[in-house]
Amino acid sequence: xxxxRHSKLIITLFLLVTVVLCSRIxxxxxxxxxxxxxxxxxxxxxxxxxxxxxxxxxFSAILTITPHEGDMFQPKVIDTLxxxxxxxxxxxxxxxxxxxxxxxxxxxxxxxxxxxxxVHPFLDSSPSSAAEWQTLRDRIDANPVLTxxxxxxxxxxxxxxxxxxxxxxxxxxxxxxxRTIVATNHDAAIDIDLAGFPIYLGMIExxxxxxxxxxxLAVLLIGLLHxxxxxxxxxxxxxxxxxxxxxxxxxxxxxxxxxxxxxFNVTTPILILAIAAGHAVQILKRxxxxxxxxxxxxxxxxxxxxRQAVANTLQxxxxxxxxxxxxxxxxxxxxxxxxxxxxxxxxxxxxxGILGAxxxxxxxxxxxxxxxxxxxxxxxxxxxxxxxxxxxxQLDRLRDLLPTxxxxxGLLVLVAILGSGVALLQVDVSMRNYFxxxxxxxxxxxxxxxxxxxTNTLYVLIDGGKPDAIKDPAxxxxxxxxQTFLDHEPLVGKTLSLVDYLRRIHRAAHEDQAEFDRLPATxxxxxxxxxxxxxxxxxxxxxxxxxxxYRHAVIQVFLHQxxxxxxHDLAARVQVIARDRLPHGVTLSVGGNVTSPAALNDVLxxxxxxxxxxxxxxxxxxxxxxxRSPMAxxxxxxxxxxxxxxxxxxxxWLGVPLSLTTSTLAAQAMGIGADFVIYFIYRLxxxxxxGLSPRAAVHAxxxxxxxxxxxxxxxxxxxxxxxxxxxxxxxxxxxxxxICIAMMIASLTALTLVPALLLVWEPAFAFRPGTISSAPASxxxxxxxxxxxxxxxxxxxxxxxxxxxxIMERNNMTNRLLGSTADATFTLTNNTGQERVRQTTTMTKLxxxxxxxxRFTRFxxxxxxKGTTTLTIEHTDGDDxxxxxxxxxxKVRRLVASNKRDSYVGTDFxxxxxxxxxxxxxxxxxxxxxTLDGTPCHVIESxxxxxxxxxxxxxxxxxxWIAKDSAVAVKAEMFDPADQPFKVFLTSDIQQVDPxxxxxxxxxxxxxxxxxxxxxVIQLTKFRxxxxxxxxxxxxxxxxxx
Amino acid sequence: xxxxxxxxxxxxxxxxKDASADDWQADTSWRLGVASSDRALNNRxxxxxxxxxxxxxxxxxxxxxxxxxxxxxxxxxxxxxxxKMELREARLRWHGEHTxxxxxxxxxxxxxxxxxxxTDILAGRDLTLMFFDDxxxxxxxxxxxxxxxxxxxxRWSAYWLxxxxxxxxxxRASGFKLEESESASHFDPVQYALKLDxxxxxxxxxxxxxxxxxxxxxxxxxxITSSSVKLVPKHRPLRMVGADAATTWQGYGLRVEVAHVxxxxxxxxxxxxxxxxxxxxxxxxxxxxxxxxxNLQAIVRHTWDHVDYQNxxxxxxxxxxxxxxxxxxxxxxxQYGCSFYLKKTWDNETLQADLFxxxxxxxxxxxxxxxxxxxxxxxxxxxxxxxxxxxxDTQLGALRHNSLVFSEIRYGF
Lengths: 1042, 413
Prior knowledge:
Chain A is an alpha+beta fold. Chain A is globular and about 110 Å long. Helix content of chain B is 8%, strand content 54%.
């Protein structure tokens, strides 16, 4: 009654909240990003990102030119190649230096002459004479490294391969630009085909844009269905108001939380719309029933009757709605634990939408209804016999059939058929399979795969462990053997590495004699040939196969397909082959775009199973609590089990693969379907409590809640059915059709199998409840608490955690300089203000692993420590090596690695603070963004993952303000093992000391121990970047020098 | 050199230090120490010394360094102790890219074990000095050293040590007098050493060899008078091969050091002969939480040609044999023991306390607790004690009259 009495206040408050929530919807970002899609901790993804970092490889696109007649050696083909290459070189997002084609400056013909090496571009312009054409032919033949890559084996096709970074506007910009280039150079006599990751991503973005049409259409169809059901203006409008506001709230909350939407969860508004409208229908249906009953009791004051009906409805249906909605929300929020960020966003988005719908339905809508004029009597009169009644009658008949022998046998046969379909389910996360096989993009992709080595790129990364390691002949021979192994794999169309170039240079340097078509024998020869090449070529010509200091090399492997199982198998066998061949200290790992599906595949298969059990367990527990019976929990799960069985089995039989989008279908269906049985059982208990026999109670329930379930299922079905209109885009198509099927099965089971079971069994929880009033406050409170916990868990946000981890990784690396020298003054002040000053001079040098540092520190003052010298060699995965030279002892002594929690030379910093705390040992979470002294920062909370970490670090928790630009922690608050405030660190005078590698260094550090009042200030002076410090300076011999 | 010359030298060096602050790296400390006893085994109450320490170095050229280090001490209590001075180090070092050549008096400290180093026999020690840090008792000797870096943390060193600077041990025995003069520092060109040392990577290790004179020496009768027997320490040739290693594993430091000493068997008198012995130390150390450090070592010393002094028939020879065995820790054929070191700091290393103890199976032991408190960067106050216990025929027991408590204030600048 509170709501009806204070309806205007509630409406005002509600509108205010809505305005606030929606005020940031404009900031909601819709992105498509591999980081969103891929499991970031999967080994394939880790290696791929590392390769991206070292070699700059990101999103590769390939364009081929093939004449209808003749070979590539004709002006039309070569002119087009030159024009297309030049156009791509200036396309937005392109990595210009990595564009590869016969017409690209980077690609050079390597030839041998009596004078030595002859290196120059293939094509400056189109050949104009027969001799020039012949020269081009000869050069291509002499450089087989290009075959299957830039020219086809049959010399009919030439290609341009380009790599792109993400650009503002998304991949649709890149795709559109490439298509424009194709269109501009279109010629009836040649075919130009396009393929690659950016093309598919661009298309996904374009199809996602269709939601702008599909969503309003879904709104309209759901509204019409409600009109058909209620035949009133309010029946049409109010559920839509709830649904649209729920969508707006969910989007508003996401925008405030800074969670991005992506192209894979753009259908979420339709899902929220359908679920929210469903709940609204349940409450609306009950409202009309209550209103009619009040009128039937000769209530003449329609306004009073309206208010009373609103109150009665809330009292009767409110608790059920909270229960059902909570279960649905919890199901979706549980997706937050899925290790793929896009699915996490989907779960959060939907869960919040459902919670929003609950709040709206239980506050705003009753308040609104109580101020609206009461329905006219004719509006409340449902048609005597409608299609819904007929449907209910049919379902009654089917229900009565089920307990018979034929019914049971039929059901078992159906379950068996569907169950066997589950076994046929295939996981396929290939992005090309989002589109039909006859889609032009897939046809082009297939054509290119046929002509060249393949459009799927796999990278084999070789890490030599130290600069110039790649020039080691033994390592190069091992690479050549790995490459030979790959070349013989049927999946592989082409491989490319530094080995190919070196062999070619070696041969060319010996007047092109065939016997020199092999790797040079010595390191010196390798170095000399590379130097020789650089005299004619450009320094960056080999950038795509070896890094600048010859520590890392990559074997590019082009594959004809991206089947996850085959990729896994190939990667495993490459590792085995390499294990015995690579020299000691050299590592090999596999990554690349083509491994992304394999990574996703691993996650989907395992996580999906876990996810289904997780949702089922949650539904069971919550329903059991709510209905005070574990058997009731099982009954609630019955439609869900059937739905999942039908979905998975149906997908298996129909050949619909389990993919990124279809993997969430079970969660969606279970979330929606759980409502049905809960509404049904609650209404059944209500009817039974009036003294009706079980059969009569079931009949009455079918007429009320049963009919509402039909309305809801139909509304969801028509809402999702609009996705089928996106025929070419299988993501939408399968989602639309599968949810329609799921709704039919869930509602059918809830209205036939469940009542049949209940009638045969007559359980107490359905027919003999102690009381039905019970909006059982305690249980609702428990539900809300559970839900709040889940929501809180969700809001700890793995996505933010991933971001937080990335920020902390960057923070950990931001001051890892190749080398540096500096003087430092340590000023230690105790709580009485007494000062002690220590001066040191320090040199650092980064170890070849790029993470650990050698640190040489000599104390210059005070007198008692003067001359004391320490040498620390960090080891990320183990104890650091530490030596100390004390002038008094006249010898260098190896020290046990200090506990990370121990004070660093008497300061308020610990060794862990100085060396850096291992990022992986802590749970990181972005709490907020804040500007500190004019520096925009992420505020990140890091909690120790285990008691051991607390013990080793001396901290239970760290709160750090990480500067957005430099990733330096400008402030940190440390909490002791009892989680009490312990220390505060401040850094200032932050300078970008190595712009090339984006490395930053704070020149002033301050630490204050809040428990003792002791304070330390470290001021760096004479700081100098010194990347070329000799390793001889970091020896014990150097320590003994004065 | 008379000690007042030493004081004069200190003053000169201080002036140089101030005048050439930019060219010289120098630090100085003034120390005032008082103790309940001296270290002369004489049971006297009260001792003390004031001393000035100076350490200075300069780069003469980019490849040539000069390093000077020494102290001057003055007995404080009524002339009971002797005023002394010591030029511990005065060396020139030329350092090339991979080679260092050092000439001059220098302290060579060998061994990777903690405080007890079997291979550390190149530098002599003066155990009668009233200084309270072990390392302050070291004595430098004239040395020509050549260090060659072999890469990968490996280097070898060759030494020529033409100066013998013996150990100075406390001596007091009724009826005997020790004549130190003949064992004072002197030139002896037949001492060499080689060392192959590796630092870095998983394990630090070294192999060492020394061909030279025994720093401790064995007491021999010089003269017998009516009132006493005059003894003189004879420093005989010996050869030592040694090895040590140190590593860390799972947060624990592991140290091992062993030396095998082979005497020249040219002396027919048993009591005069050097003994062949193997001396080993193995230990583990660990940093416990909250700035607490602990080190535990096992000690074993085996004398291969051990002769029980009690079996020496002549009473005089027996008494001298006992004194020699005690000085060299050879009263038992095999001696087992252990050492323990614990150190803890508080308040950002303002306060430090440590305890060093050595215990041998014969029941003799040393306990040495110490505490240092830094008033500020310049002033440090120390308080400590040394307690020796054991029978007369044990190395530590023989020193029990040197048990003392002490305090020192040190001012450094």
